[in-house]
Recover the amino acids of this structure.
């Protein structure tokens, strides 16, 4: 290198002469060389970078070997012995060897690296949804924040969710069948979905399943007398009087004599019309017989048979009014609406409400009987209406049984339809058990009906179980599948007699021993057998599974089955073989009854007749099977009225 530098300095400051014999007049130096005549001949003084006698040879320089990489431009310096690289955009280093975009590509997830003019700088052009500031590493759609199958579309550093299947919400968090979509909870109540149903957490002292009773509701209790209906008007109310009553509070009953006269006149007119119709029909039939030669029809001749055989009505076809009356051979229990006098609402479900009422002459002529009237809400869906009609049909097919709630009558002539049930004063078994456990007084409590209790004996608990089994044994004998057997659907009558009730999900399977649910509706997941949860199949053995859970509720005084688990978690665990654990104070024999009810295969479970015998045998020595003094109050979950179960379950 030093020799090259000396040589370049020599060429720079000292001309490199080349002596030739020719004259400058006849021969010119090449490549810009200067010709001079000398003593020994002519001499060419070559320009920088050239040599030879005629300056015809180029001298080597520092850029000859193209040291600059990546399309960099080489510039000789210091007499061409040194060089400097002019790098292309995005490259740097002495020989332009440093790439701003790196190798491999700095930009991730398919991003394109763009080199910038100013030194070692670059910019990532990212696919949609990825952040250039992190070399395309991060995306607001990773992981997908959109729920219920929603599609995430990045919008800069944010995103948009495109919801599927009718879901709504910024993150599609509200599914199309979300029971809380149009909040059913009134008076500011908070709605929490529970599978296909919901729970309302009431605010500001409101009460009721839907928080419909505000703390300051002027219609609670009903100030309207003589069956008047109360309508709230701000902080006041209006009474809509019934049966001719008058006064602000309907306190003036209609004149009984006037009412009697009106009734008599109406009855006489109706009787006359009926007689007239019968006479006309007889005359027409007689004239037809004469035209046919006097031949009587099969029915008129007393054979008692129809000319055309009609197919027996299926219980699922009760939407057909004619089929449900003429074909099912169920005696009519139609009751006049004007004989019912509503007092006030005593219960509410997801699609029906229950009112306390007086019915004139429904049991005995001239006697008013307290009854419970069940009717659909105005918001009821077509499926709710269908289930209501099926419940009415099922009640009509049942005889009276001491452990099954009885239907006393119905009103089906127009909407809303009524199911008139016997009135039970002490509410449901679940609330009663929790009252015993916590000491809290239920709002329904009829203190005159039974003495205040602080605890339950093993005999009383097993007596409840025995009564429920007797009721279910009767329903099974009628080929009736209940599908919603739980302590909340066991009502307590006079003397705390258990009565199986709420046939909203029940089905008659007289034609076959199993029922396949055809549509998705409300289902009580924690009380359902695996074949019902997974295959929509219901048999009497499915009700046996539910009785096992009910027995667990009895032993734990109304505790919440599968505490700490969501409904989906319960289903997943049951598929793995999980069962409710044995309470510490419960004997092995009683727990074995529960486990027998929870056998995987329905055919391995006992029937209700067998359970009746087993429970009665245990009842003979009840004290040896339950140690209620050892009940751990903290081990089992109890939900306060109106409390959302989500507070005790994982999300």
């Amino acid at each position: 290198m030093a020799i090259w530098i000396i040589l370049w300095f020599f060429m720079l400051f000292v001309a490199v002469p080349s002596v030739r014999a020719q004259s400058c007049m006849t021969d010119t130096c090449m490549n810009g060389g200067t010709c001079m005549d000398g003593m020994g001949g002519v001499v060419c003084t070559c320009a920088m970078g050239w040599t030879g006698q005629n300056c015809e040879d180029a001298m080597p320089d520092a850029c000859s070997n193209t040291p600059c990489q990546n399309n960099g431009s080489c510039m000789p310096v210091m007499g061409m012995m040194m060089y400097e690289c002019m790098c292309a955009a995005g490259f740097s280093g002495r020989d332009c060897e440093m790439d701003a975009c790196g190798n491999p590509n700095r930009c991730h997830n398919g991003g394109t690296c763009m080199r910038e003019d100013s030194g070692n700088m670059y910019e990532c052009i990212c696919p949609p949804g990825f952040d250039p500031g992190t070399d395309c590493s991060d995306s607001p759609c990773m992981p997908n924040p959109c729920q219920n199958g929603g599609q995430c579309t990045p919008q800069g550093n944010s995103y948009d969710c495109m919801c599927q299947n009718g879901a709504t919400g910024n993150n599609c968090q509200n599914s199309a069948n979300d029971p809380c979509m149009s909040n059913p909870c009134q008076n500011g109540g908070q709605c929490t979905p529970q599978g296909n149903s919901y729970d309302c957490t009431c605010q500001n002292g409101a009460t009721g399943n839907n928080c419909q009773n505000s703390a300051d509701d002027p219609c609670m209790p009903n100030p309207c007398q003589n069956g008047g209906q109360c309508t709230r008007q701000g902080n006041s109310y209006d009474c809509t009087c019934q049966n001719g009553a008058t006064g602000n509070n309907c306190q003036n009953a209609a004149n009984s004599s006037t009412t009697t006269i009106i009734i008599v006149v109406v009855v006489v007119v109706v009787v006359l019309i009926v007689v007239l119709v019968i006479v006309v029909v007889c005359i027409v039939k007689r004239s037809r017989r004469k035209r046919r030669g006097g031949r009587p029809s099969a029915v008129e001749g007393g054979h008692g048979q129809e000319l055309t055989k009609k197919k027996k009505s299926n219980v699922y076809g009760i939407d057909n009014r004619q089929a449900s009356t003429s074909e099912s051979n169920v005696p009519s229990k139609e009751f006049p609406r004007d004989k019912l006098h509503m007092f006030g609402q005593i219960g509410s479900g997801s699609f029906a409400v229950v009112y306390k009422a007086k019915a004139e002459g429904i049991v005995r002529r001239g006697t008013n009987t307290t009854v419970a009237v069940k009717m659909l809400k105005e918001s009821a869906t077509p499926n709710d209406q269908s289930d209501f009609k099926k419940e009415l049909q099922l009640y009509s097919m049942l005889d009276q049984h001491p452990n099954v709630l009885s239907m006393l009558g119905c009103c089906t002539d127009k909407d809303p339809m009524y199911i008139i049930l016997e009135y039970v004063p002490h509410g449901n078994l679940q609330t009663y058990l929790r009252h015993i456990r916590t000491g809290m007084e239920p709002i329904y409590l009829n203190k005159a009906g039974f003495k205040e209790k602080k605890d339950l004996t093993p005999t009383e608990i097993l007596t409840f179980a025995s009564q429920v089994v007797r009721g279910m044994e009767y329903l099974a004998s009628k080929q009736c599948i209940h599908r919603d057997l739980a302590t909340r659907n066991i009502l307590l009558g006079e003397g705390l007699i258990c009565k199986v009730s709420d046939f909203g999900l029940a089905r008659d399977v007289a034609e076959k021993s199993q029922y396949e649910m055809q549509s998705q509706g409300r289902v009580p997941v924690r009380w359902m057998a695996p074949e019902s949860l997974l295959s929509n199949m219901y048999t009497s053995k499915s009700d046996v599974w539910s009785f096992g859970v009910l027995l667990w509720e009895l032993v734990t005084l109304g505790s919440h089955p599968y505490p700490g688990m969501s409904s989906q978690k319960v289903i997943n665990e049951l598929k793995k073989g999980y069962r409710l654990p044995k309470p510490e104070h419960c004997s092995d024999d009683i727990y074995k009854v529960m486990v027998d009810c929870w056998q995987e295969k329905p055919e391995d479970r006992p029937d209700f007749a067998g359970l009746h015998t087993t429970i009665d045998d245990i009842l003979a020595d009840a004290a040896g099977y339950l140690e209620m003094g050892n009940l751990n109050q903290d081990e089992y979950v109890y939900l306060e009225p109106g409390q959302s179960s989500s507070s005790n379950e994982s999300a």
